[in-house]
Amino acid sequence: MQTLSSTAASATRTTGAYLEIDGVTKVYPSARGAHTVLDGVDLSVAEGEFVCLIGHSGCGKSTLLDMVSGFRQPTTGEVRLNGERIIDPGPDRMVVFQNYSLLPWLSAYDNIALAVNNVFPELQRNGQAKAIVEEHLAMVGLSEAAHKKPGSLSGGMKQRVSIARALALKPKVLLLDEPFGALDPITREELQEELLKIWADHRVTVLMITHDIDEALFLADRVVMMTNGPAATIGEVLELPFARPRVRARLLEQPEYFDLRNRALDFLYRRYAHDDE
Questions:
Q1: pLDDT tens digit string along 192-212?
Q2: Separation between Cα atoms, residue 135 and residue 18, nearest integer Å
Q3: What's the CATH code of the domain at 85?
Q4: With contact defined as beta carbons under 8 Å apart, do 173 and 29 qualify?
Q5: What is the pTM for the complete model shown?
Q6: Which helix (H) or strand (E) segment is 68 a member of?
Q7: Are 49 and 221 in contact (CB under 8 A)?
Q8: CB-based contact 224:43 (threshold 8 Å)
Q9: Are residues 26 and 147 in the same domain?
């Protein structure tokens, strides 16, 4: 078990860094003057690594994810993927949101096919797109629900479609913004298990926002804890020593699990809970 400062943790990941967040600051103008959301964020993520971001609401987690996706640009600093600066959105960085973002008039199949056909039109012409859509529906266990529209699907099934759509585009980075936050506890745990299996098979690099400490400890290689805003930054990074594949029941038997959980709780709720956001 090891807890590192953001500087030390970043340094340990510099070699072979795949996704690099380098000195990123985000400032917005406001009626009261400049409002700094993020201040000097440094984070290096290795290819195939699973990293969770946690922190109180308003600490800039989603803003940081938006800059990795290319939807926003840093005020200072830059974000790089495989050495290339990120300046706009692209299919190499797919986002899965909490609210699913499915088109309600299209079936599960057609929601995925629309994305595949737009990004890879040549696959539609040569007939490979259909196989890719069917493969990814099967991957999330939704082959039999392929022609159902979102209104006929449960929340968990909708999120499975969203994950399948994202992975069907073969992204280099999968960005997850509280993807299971709206689900009931049982469905949430089921999808956590499925996500780990999919990640183990594909080894896509994952950057995930969650407010759930137990979720972060179960899923991640590292847990990045953000300080409160304004001018939020990385406060501490937890390096998780748990072997993979992970079995939830066995994980809960390890004393290190509760040590790390208590460290995260101490950071989030005792040191920063009363800060102004």
A1: 999 999 999 989 999 999 999
A2: 27
A3: 3.40.50.300
A4: no
A5: 0.90
A6: helix 61-69
A7: yes
A8: yes
A9: no
Q: Which two tokens stand for residue 153?
A: 């699907």
- In angstroms, the first-to-last Cα distance of the chain is 30
- Both tokens of residue 195? 């996500």
The CA distance from 192 to 169, in Å, is 21
Question: What's the Cα-to-Cα distance from 264 to each of 144, 200, 206, 237, 259, rounded to whole Å?
Answer: 41, 25, 20, 9, 9
Domain housing 153: 103-169
Report how far residue 215's alpha carbon sits from residue 221's, in angstroms, rounded to the nearest whole number: 12
Q: Is the peptide bond before 245 cis (omega within 30 degrees of 0)?
A: yes
Q: 179 and 98 in contact (C-beta within 8 Å)?
A: yes
3-class SS of residue 43: strand
Block residue for tokens 């510099």: 14
Q: Where a domain ends, among 114, 146, 169?
A: 169
Are 206 and 131 in the same domain?
no
Name residue, tokens 């699973």.
50
Give tens-digit pLDDT for 207-229: 999 999 999 999 999 999 999 98
Phi, psi of 74 (to 5 degrees): -65, 150
In a domain? residue 98: no
Domain end point (choices 148, 169, 190): 169
